[in-house]
Specification:
Polyamine Oxidase, Chain A, domain 2, alpha/beta, 22 helices, L-amino-acid oxidase activity, 22 strands, single chain, 599 residues, FAD/NAD-bd_sf, five-stranded parallel β-sheet, 40% helix, Amino_oxidase, Flavin_monoamine_oxidase
């Protein structure tokens, strides 16, 4: 893998990053205007702390963000900074870095969570972790990779199947089948062309003058879902056509998400590549769970089975400034721990179950925690006696259908080998919720129905006899991320208006002491890189609050180079987020004191 050496300028000027920067700056300006605190007054009101002292950090969650935050702290090599990681799950670390193994066979597994990594510049932070921190490099012998090595991931091959409207075609046949190869009677252009009709003009305008054009787009479309945008912008598409486009393009009800989220997603992969080349994708031999285990081996002080149930703020004596944070676990008041800073990497669906009444969070932050939209995802892996799909030409890639399975992911690992495991169904949004409703435990009637549905669908899509497929079937493992108590959803997928109104709230440390990380607090939702970027941001926040940033900046400079969300040249934006977060902590505490006096 040949990395581009000088990428900072390119990384920090991508569409998504300029959007996030603009949102935060607009939010900061609105806050100052609404509260009468110009930035200069804020600096005087909340000076950086000057006294060097031991700093104890509580990290909530041992997923990618939590363990990466710990690794960064360790990289500072300073006895002044210590940490504890509190993980609610008693059995494993990694969060959504989760691999299920059917046996000890080298290829008898599938990734329940994150499973593929595109080698494009804004993902370089992930590859920096893999290569630099964990020693996970591209396999020297791709035919015989070792556990933890990176191997080629096949996103699509010509022989992958598509079954819609009762008709099965290969990718190659679809490509040559005109605009409506599945006879819907609704498509006079391809789905790709129909989406390009809507977005190409916007992208050209943004390329010419991002700031002015983006402000126009936000004003016009920020409150719109993708579905509403397609129905109201010129040329307006009918609801039937929109649903058809959605069916081929994504999961059912995905288009209820923010239009700007969809626009950013469509632009993420438009990074220039040399003519004739495609984006390279990789997966981890042994599964992404190897990443989690190697991160675990790098850090210390992970406490398993510690469900955080209460967080409280402690104030400077005689002031309204946050001084430290108390954390209780497992509903036990005697378990209280005191930290100088707390980094929550918990998904917001889990965080909102914590008693934060003694933190007095702002209304806007409470709304963000409660309302930020997450999508569901359900995966079902199956083990067979042989890799029967390879006999049908399916050697990696994805087959798709409008049936219950929706997406079938053929393993890019173990090709021509003996272990025969594949993802027979990978679904999102409403598709995932409906299929996930059948994930009720082995031996239950619901899961017997689940297995029957998926095997029947597989047989139809591949044109094989159901009795032959059942003879191959050995075992299965289903996972519904919505039903997982440690995630309460699969990944963030913001709704209309949420980026502009709620994203700035979760990137401000409340009281300068309670910090939020995780992919939902990044602009890169659903990607490991979002967890990594957000973790690095929170460590920099802590260094800024403690007036240690200039001291440790040289140690973090190389890591920051591959993080497109942090630009050392614009560190003042992050400083302003901290000042506002500290000021909000004071304001809410004053309000509570006034309420107590009047009552």
């Amino acid at each position: 893998m040949d990395r581009i050496d000088d990428i900072s300028e390119q990384l920090h000027n991508t569409w998504r990053i300029q959007y996030a920067r603009q949102l935060i700056e607009n939010s900061q300006a609105a806050w100052h205007k609404g509260h009468g605190y110009p930035p200069s007054a804020m600096k005087a009101a909340a000076p950086a702390e000057k006294v060097r002292r031991p700093i104890k950090i509580g990290i909530l969650g041992a997923g990618a963000a939590g363990m990466y935050a710990a690794m960064i702290i360790d990289s500072l090599k300073s006895p002044d900074f210590t940490y504890e990681i509190l993980e609610a799950n008693p059995e494993r670390v990694g969060g959504r870095l989760y691999t299920h193994h059917f046996s000890d066979g080298p290829n008898d597994y599938f990734d329940v969570g994150a499973m593929r990594y595109p080698y494009i510049p804004f993902m370089y932070h992930t590859f920096y972790l893999l290569e630099h921190d964990l020693g996970m490099t591209e396999a020297e012998d791709p035919m015989n990779p070792r556990e933890g090595e990176l191997i080629k991931y096949f996103m699509s091959i010509d022989k992958n199947l598509n079954r819609y409207n009762g008709k099965t075609l290969t990718n190659e046949q679809v490509k040559n089948g005109g605009p409506d190869p599945f006879d819907t009677g609704l498509l006079d252009e391809t789905v790709e062309q129909l989406l390009n009709n809507k977005f190409s003009g916007m992208k050209e305008q943004l390329a010419n003058n991002f700031q002015d054009e983006w402000n126009k787009l936000v004003g016009l479309y920020d409150a719109l879902s993708m579905r509403t945008f397609l129905a109201t912008s010129s040329p307006a598409y009918s609801q039937k056509l929109i649903t058809t486009i959605e069916t081929f393009d994504s999961g059912t009800t995905f288009y209820d998400s923010a239009m700007l989220e969809m626009l950013m997603e469509s632009m993420d992969f438009e990074w220039p590549v040399p003519p004739g080349e495609e984006v390279k994708w990789y997966c981890v031999q042994g599964g992404s769970g190897v990443i989690a285990e190697r991160m675990k081996a790098k850090v210390k002080n992970i406490e398993m089975g510690k469900e955080v149930t209460k967080i409280s703020a402690n104030l400077v004596s005689g002031h309204h400034e946050w001084e430290s944070v108390d954390v209780e676990v497992n509903h036990d008041p005697t378990s209280k721990r005191r930290y100088d800073h707390v980094i929550s990497t918990m998904p917001f669906g889990c965080f909102r179950n914590i008693d934060t009444s003694e933190c007095h969070l702002t209304w806007d932050l409470e709304v963000a925690i409660r309302c930020l939209k997450y999508s569901n995802s359900t995966k079902v892996g199956m083990k067979f006696k042989s890799r029967w799909w390879e006999k049908h030409g399916q050697r990696g890639g994805v087959s798709k259908t409008d049936g219950p399975t929706r997406c079938i992911v053929y393993p890019s690992y173990g090709i021509d080998g003996e272990d025969a495991t594949m993802i027979v169904s990978y679904t999102w949004a409403q598709d995932a919720t409906r299929l996930g409703s059948l994930c009720r435990g082995k031996g239950t009637p619901a899961e017997e129905t689940l297995v029957d549905i998926l095997l029947d669908d597989l047989a139809v899509i591949h044109g094989i006899k159901i009795e032959d497929l059942r003879a191959e079937f050995v075992d299965y493992f289903p996972w519904n991320w919505d039903d997982n108590p440690y995630s309460a959803g699969a990944f963030a997928l913001f709704g209309p208006g949420q980026f502009s109104t709620l994203y700035p709230e979760v990137t401000q440390p409340m009281g300068g002491r309670l910090h939020f990380a995780g992919e939902a607090t990044s602009v890169h939702h659903a990607w490991v890189v979002g967890a990594l970027n957000s973790a690095l941001r929170t460590i920099i926040e802590i260094l800024l609050v403690e007036d240690r940033w200039e001291e440790f900046k040289p140690l973090l400079k190389e890591r920051i180079k591959y993080d497109d969300e942090i630009d050392i040249r614009n560190i003042d934006i992050l400083e302003e987020q901290i000042r506002i977060g500290r000021q909000k902590g004071k304001i809410t505490q004053k309000r509570i004191d006034m309420l107590n006096v009047t009552s």
